[in-house]
Amino acid sequence: MSAPNSPSPPSSPPSSASFLPPQKPKPPPPSPPRTWLQAPAPIRWLFATFPLQNLPANPLPASRDASYSSSGNKPLLYIFTTPADARHGGPSFNPSCLKWQTWLRLHGVEIRTVPSSNHASPSGALPFLLPAAGEGEARAKPVAAGKLYTWAEEHGRGRKGELSRMAQMREEAYLSLVEHRIRAAWLHSLYLTANFDDIVYALYIAPCSSALPVRLSMARSLRTAARQSLHQLSPRTSLNPESYLSSILYVSAEDRSDEEAEALYNGAWDAFSALSTLLGDDEWFFGAQEPGILDVSLFAYTHLMLDDELGDGWVDTRARRGLQECGNLVRHRKRLYKRCYA
User: Fold this and answer.
1) Are strands 112-115 and 143-144 parallel, antiparallel or unpaired?
2) If phi over 0 gives left and psi between -120 and 50 gives alpha, with beta otherwise, what is residue 92?
3) Residue 53 has pLDDT above 80, yes or no
């Protein structure tokens, strides 16, 4: 027990820190300089709030919807066509689609045609076919245009008689006339003349959208694609490099000169004359009992070139000038149309 009134121990001397003035808070470190690659703050906030997600792939537009269930379990052929022609199986207004549509019909394949566009195709181009699924089976994979030749041979009825090896080699040579000279004249006549407004616009552009900017963009894209295809099909008579580059960059909207156009149409005229000589008085090429791929490939162009009701009607008819002078080719077109579509 401590004694009363004992002195308290001396307190510790005051620290020297208590005599220092209060320190100011340190400023935050300077933010890194903003570069031109850095997104603004509102954009960063937007992506942080709604991050990008990888969604599963959309199902193919070729799915069998209820609007075509009344046709039964038939293969569906997606082509360029009008809704009215699709309902009764009328011929397509596109040569590539018409070729394979006719080829399938010749092999007895019962199909249902569906109006479509290149954007709906798994390969990016029409036509394509969705085979019929069996009872309880999953939907089959689409068949692209490049495989329709063998698919029809495997799933349809066979042709009567086969061409000899020599005839097959000649057939390939004459097919090149159709796919190069006649196709080049078709592209120029359809996309780079007054026929564009009356046929292409009416069939390919107007049904897709009612918005003027969309229609103008589609028109420009179609014309540019036609120029590029012509450059590949006929480089000797194509646009010179400077004007060709201008057409791609949309600097100039000028089409080929009259001299270049006449070269294309004269090439198609020569092709029609050669095919007319080859056909002669026969019903089908090479005297075959049944139409072959050359008959179908030629028909895909001759039928459309001679169709006065295509779109809003032909304005420039130079592409079919040589065709109309080949009477046997005109009769060949009528004969094949009657067999498949009458």
Assistant:
1) unpaired
2) beta
3) no
- ∠ CA 243-247-249 to the nearest 5 degrees? 115
Report the C-alpha gap between 126 and 270 in whole angstroms: 29
Cβ count within 10 A of residue 112: 19
Higher pLDDT, 205 or 239: 205
Across 71-99, average pLDDT:
91
pTM: 0.75
Chain centre distance of CA 233: 18
Q: Determine the average pLDDT of the residues in 270-285.
A: 96
Percent of the chain with pLDDT over 70: 75
HEC-encoded secondary structure of the chain:
CCCCCCCCCCCCCCCHHHHCCCCCCCCCCCCCCCCCCCCCHHHHHHHHHCCCCCCCCCCCCCCCCHHHHHHCCCCEEEECCCHHHHHHCCCCCCHHHHHHHHHHHHCCCCCEEEECCHHHCCCCCCCEEECCCCCCCCCCCCEEHHHHHHHHHHHCCCCCCCCCHHHHHHHHHHHHHHHHHHHHHHHHHHHCCCHHHHHHHHHHHCCCCCCHHHHHHHHHHHHHHHHHHHHHHCHHHCCCHHHHHHHHCCCCCCCCCHHHHHHHHHHHHHHHHHHHHHHCCCCCHHHCCCCCHHHHHHHHHHHHHCCCCCCCCCCCCHHHCCHHHCHHHHHHHHHHHHHHCC
The pLDDT score that the predictor gives to residue 123 is 86
Q: How far apart are the first and last CA of the chain?
A: 131
Residue 175 structure tokens:
């097919």
Among all chains, which residue has been given the structure tokens 């009607």? 313
CA torsion sign, 177 to 183 to 188 to 193? positive
Q: Locate 143 and state its tokens.
A: 């068949």
Confidence category of residue 211, pLDDT binned at 50, 70, 90? very high
CA-based nearest residue to 75, from 131, 14, 153: 131
